[in-house]
Amino acid sequence: MDADRAGAWLPFVLALSLLSVTGLALMPMKDGAHVTQTESGDDVPRFVEHFTEIEDEPVPDDEVIRLAWHPLSDELGILGSEKRAEDLGNLSVFNHPVKDAKALLGLTLRWSDDETLNATIVIKITSEIENGILRMILVEDGVEIEGRTPDQNAVVRQYETFYPPSPSSDRNLTIHQEFTLLDPGGYHLVLLLSDFYTEENFALLSTSVPAPETGPAGVDAKASALIGLGILLLCLAAVVRAEWKREIMLPRLSGSLDREGKAMAILRAGTGGVHLKEVKVEPPWRLARAIRDVDLAAGSERTFEVRVKLEPDAQPMPIVTAWSIEVEEMGGWVLDLTFDSKRST
Question: How far is Cα 66 from Cα 163, in angstroms, rounded to an integer?
């Protein structure tokens, strides 16, 4: 296909292609598309709780489920840290071994707005339990402490509890909890169902917090964004096409001084016919013979000898010429061409 013809519609094809790709990526997104759904397994996996301070070495960042409790006096401390340490014997590190689960935990996480994470938790009791407590622990990794030790991992940021009915057997419970996160990056949620008195673990679930949905929310907002993007792309395509049209329709003017010092110019018509109205030269030069009223068909060219004379007592300078033309469908234009002993433009 001829490249000149392709340029007439190619910008619009590209704009429509970009618009289509954007539409495919944007329109199928439903409200709450960024949702996490998961459930615990038949075992309570191994997990480790750390009772630490900012000055201590950071908690390891590995595949093990870890909770880093900081004292309330610490910059990262929260209410409940000291009580949790007492419940586990005031040890600096407490390892929970793998054991069979007595319940299943189901979790659905979704953003209700930019800062509010909504958790729907389903507790399925598979064996009779007593004195149950569900701990909902929001943990953040990579916490930066300015001017202190390296980034802290598994920092307990929020801690909520729920007490299922006791004794419980063969029952399903659904609870809802909201968490406020000013910065949604680097969080995961740990659900721990255990005995309030003995700390026997019945079920454990840990999952990353989903990324908040970005861009317009809702079909109407997405459609409006798509229409706005389409208008912008089509406007850009129109600008590109206008520039392409100018480039292919305007003639090309070039020239140089030959070996005899004559100024020779070549006018090449583009895809539009050209009418050369007049050629002017700037002082101290003047035309020895006028050049005017020349027609060139589209795609043709013509060579001109620009005969000039230097004004009396003037110092030689580059020959600066102005070519007044009319281009089919493009109107009037002025092309400049300069000749000197070293170069011409």
Answer: 23
pLDDT tens-place string over residues 88-98: 999 999 999 99
Residue 57: per-residue pLDDT: 86
Confidence band of 130 (pLDDT split at 50, 70, 90): confident
Radius of gyration of the chain, Cα coordinates, nearest whole angstrom? 39
Residue 239 three-state SS? helix
Residues 76-87, mean pLDDT to the nearest whole number: 93
pTM of the model: 0.57
Q: Per-domain residue ranges for the chain?
A: 3-26+216-247, 36-208, 251-339
User: Residue 140 has which token pair?
Assistant: 């953040």
**What is the amino acid identity at position 135?**
R
Q: Which fold has domain 36-208?
A: Immunoglobulin-like (2.60.40)
Decide whether 36-208 matches 251-339 in CATH topology.
yes
Distance, in Å, from the CA atom of 26 to the CA atom of 222, rounded to the nearest integer, reads: 7
| Residues with Cβ within 8 Å of residue 307, at least 6 apart in sequence | 262, 263, 287, 288, 289
Rounded Cα gap, residues 67 and 50, in angstroms? 6
d(CA 227, CA 219): 12
Burial 61-94 (b: 16+ CB within 10 A, else e): eeeebbbbbbeeebebbbebbeebbeeeeeeeeb
- CA-to-CA distance for 237 and 19, rounded, in angstroms? 12
The pair of structure tokens assigned to 274 is 């050209």
DSSP secondary-structure letter at 295? E
Segments in 89-154 forming alpha helices (H): none
Q: For residue 263, count CB atoms less than 10 angstroms from its CB and return exposed for 0-12, middle for 13-18, buried for 19 or more.
A: buried
CATH of region 251-339: 2.60.40.10
How do residues 139-160 score in pLDDT, each as one tens digit? 999 888 877 767 889 999 999 9
